[in-house]
Design brief:
Blueprint lengths: L1 E3 L2 E3 L19 E2 L4 E7 L13 E2 L5 E5 L9 E5 L5 E6 L17 E2 L5 E5 L9 E5 L5 E6 L17 E2 L5 E5 L9 E5 L5 E6 L13 E2 L5 E5 L16 E5 L5 E6 L11 E3 L3 E2 L5 E7 L7 E8 L5 E8 L12 E2 L5 E5 L9 E5 L5 E6 L17 E2 L5 E5 L9 E6 L7 E3 L2 E2 L4 E5 L8 E4 L2 E2 L2 E5 L2 E5 L9 E5 L2 E4 L5 E2 L2
Parallel strand pairs: 3-29, 34-42
Antiparallel strand pairs: 1-2, 4-32, 5-6, 6-7, 7-8, 9-10, 10-11, 11-12, 13-14, 14-15, 15-16, 17-18, 18-19, 19-20, 21-23, 22-23, 23-24, 24-25, 26-27, 27-28, 28-29, 30-31, 31-32, 33-35, 35-39, 36-37, 36-40, 38-39, 40-41
């Protein structure tokens, strides 16, 4: 059992264990600091130790969680502006025996109904975590408490963010529970109807601590932190897998880590995945790789069918070590991520890596006296429609409880859609940062009727004749394109 913030849970984040391997040379290129800003330092009253990144909402704010602190010590949900004004919306353990949950480690997801959905790692009726819904103004509803079934066959300790699928349901994972106590994959509707889709048993992976991604083929892809069918001594507590699962629960393991020679040259302990615009999946591992001195994680590419390529190996050196979070693809086509450890100041790094594997260190944490800029970024970055990246550190800051930060690398504004796929006639929300005065909205060239709700939101419907492609919004300053293609479903 590992323990975070005083809360016991199985294996979760055990991939942070520091394992020394042999051999090292890094291709990381250190650059001068970019335009980095510490937006907020937590002080315990408003939360502590954030391990997830705030997500951009339709009202223009960034919504996030902290796993501890707040009015009741059980963690918080907060909103922060891009200028750094933070408001605590909810403090967990507000109910007797933390019936509302405690320890919301993962990021939130804004559903098409405008509410946010998330999970807590503890508390709830079974003291094994919850799924909750919270409105933009902070009204929280507990939708499900894990360990509601005998022997926790429904799962326990959800650690990863939820994802809303094209069918409207939400999908997620638990790091424990299930029929073999090795974790589960589950489905839950926005109203709270819960279904366990798969229970891991070690041979197909163990302890999934990250969320899922729905690929363009309709299937979900995810990772387990350990286990897998090809995992054998001496790596039984490491390895990890990449799996594919259908909406009906049919699971296939497509890759097991530690399967390339000694010392886990392909990495071990994978984090979350994203699907890039080229169709491949990209992610990181927390340890392993081919670097010398101490191999401490990798960046990898894997095809939907399971062909894996290691793009970069980290080590205890100036290039950073132990990437604990996944990647985000920027509007320039490159990937951006963080390492929780090492770098020039030993506080972790922010990096950019090209699809071909060229890595550049963009920022080294603990660059300021006392690490007031933050330390140990565990979370995936998010790119706001203003072009800037936002993230959190789990420690450091003026009070030592972590920070929210921004990093500008000179990328311009763009628009996002919610959802990113739909059928003709479906309602679509378009997010931006300066949409006032918009004169045209089009889906891959097909014009749509629209309404400008605010400077951060346009509502429209998918027009007849629309095909899969970029969404474009024409505003007084010029055209803005979506960061990913909007997929028109049959």
């Amino acid at each position: 059992m590992s323990k975070r913030n005083g809360m016991s849970k199985p294996i979760s984040r055990g991939k942070r264990a520091y394992v020394v391997f042999a051999l090292c040379a890094t291709t990381a290129i250190a650059l001068r600091a970019q335009t980095f800003t510490t937006l907020h330092s937590f002080d315990n009253t408003d939360g502590v130790n954030p391990e997830s990144t705030p997500v951009q909402a339709t009202n223009g704010g960034l919504y996030g969680t902290t796993p501890g602190g707040g009015a009741n010590g059980g963690g918080t949900v907060f909103i922060i502006s891009t200028g750094g004004t933070l408001t605590t919306l909810y403090s967990f353990c507000a109910q007797t025996a933390c019936a509302d949950g405690s320890g919301p480690f993962p990021a939130l997801v804004e559903a098409t109904n405008g509410d946010f959905y998330g999970t807590t790692n503890g508390g709830g009726a079974g003291n094994a975590g919850t799924v909750f819904k919270i409105t933009q103004s902070g009204t929280l509803t507990t939708l499900y408490s894990f360990c509601s079934q005998t022997n926790c066959t429904d799962g326990a300790y959800p650690d990863g963010a939820l994802v809303q699928a094209t069918n409207g349901a939400l999908y997620g994972t638990t790091s424990g529970g299930g029929t073999s106590n090795d974790g589960t994959v589950f489905e839950i509707t926005p109203s709270g109807a819960f279904t366990t889709l798969h229970s891991f048993d070690g041979t197909d992976g163990q302890a999934p601590t990250t969320g899922l991604v729905q690929a363009t083929n309709g299937d979900f892809y995810g990772t387990t932190g350990s286990g897998g069918p090809a995992c054998a001594p001496p790596y039984l507590f490491y390895c990890g897998s990449v799996f594919r699962i259908t909406t009906s629960g049919v699971l296939a393991t497509i890759y097991t880590f530690c399967s390339q020679g000694d010392n886990c040259a392909d990495g071990s302990g994978p984090s979350g995945l994203i699907q890039a615009t080229n169709g491949n999946l990209y992610g990181t591992t927390n340890i392993g790789g081919t670097s010398s001195i101490a191999a401490q994680g990798t960046v990898f590419k894997i095809s939907p069918s399971g062909t894996l390529t290691t793009l970069h190996s980290f080590c205890y050196c100036t290039g950073g070590a132990n990437p604990d979070a996944g990647l985000v693809q920027g509007t320039d086509g490159n990937f951006y991520g963080t390492t929780e450890d090492d770098g020039a100041n030993h506080g972790g790094t922010i990096f950019k890596i090209t699809p071909g594997g060229m890595l550049t260190t963009l920022y080294n944490f603990c660059a300021q006296h006392g690490c007031t800029d933050g330390e140990n970024p565990y979370a995936t970055l998010v790119q706001d429609t203003d072009g800037t990246f936002y993230g959190t550190t789990a420690s450091g800051g003026t009070n030592g409880y972590g920070t929210v930060f921004s990093l500008s690398v000179g990328l311009g504004p763009f628009v996002k859609t919610l959802p990113t796929a739909g059928k003709l006639g479906a309602a679509v929300k378009i997010l931006g940062t300066d949409l006032t005065g918009a004169t045209k909205v089009s889906f891959n060239g097909t014009a749509a009727v629209f309404e400008v709700v605010s400077s951060s939101l346009i509502t429209t419907t998918l027009p007849a004749g629309a095909t899969t492609g970029a969404v474009e919004v024409v505003v007084p300053s010029g055209p803005l394109s979506s960061n990913v293609a909007f997929r028109v479903l049959p």
